[in-house]
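Example 3.2
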Amino acid sequence: MESEAIIEKTVDYVKETLRQQEGSHDWFHIERVWKNAIQLGRAEQADMLVVQLAALLHDIADHKFHGGDETVGPRMAEEWLAGLGVNEEVVRHVSQIIADLSFKGAHVQTAMKTKEGMVVQDADRLDAIGAIGIARAFAYGGYKGQPLYDPAIQPTLHASFAEYKQAQSTSVNHFYEKLLLLKDRMNTEAGRKLAEERHAFMERFLEELQRECGVSFIQPKSEG
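Structure, written as tokens:
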């Protein structure tokens, strides 16, 4: 099957699978990451079939919606691509990217092994920051039923993925526990430039939010 047909069928599959997914991880999130990945992948001269398939399938079964099981997403991606007759090396590459992609805690290393993985990770992280990142953070927080902010709950720089997954937090704390850390963890030059702008927007938003709420958000100690 030609690459274009594989991409088209995968788009249809992802749209249908995520048809009723909550707003922060729905098809439109996938579409934005896909577009980001195409832009970054071309700049990095990456394998665009791998980049596009990994971007499209990266949240096909996010562990957050599958009882914390990190194996479901890579497995579903493998099964789907194998069913299309995609080259085994490409299938393995895409599956590995999906397995390694997500943020796993402030003190957990999540370095990608390939250029294509770096591109897709940057594309996904760009959608977690800036205006859309703010919107997604509060959408997911609402879905989880967590507070907007609570001075009694301090942000934590998690030491393990298990700790990160199990933590009870607030939407504002999520900025300090993850989103504000992403700018300095981008892999590609183009990704870093885009992240700078989005990071600055989040900082301005948090300053205004504190002013309107009449509070000062407690920040965690430096990662160092």
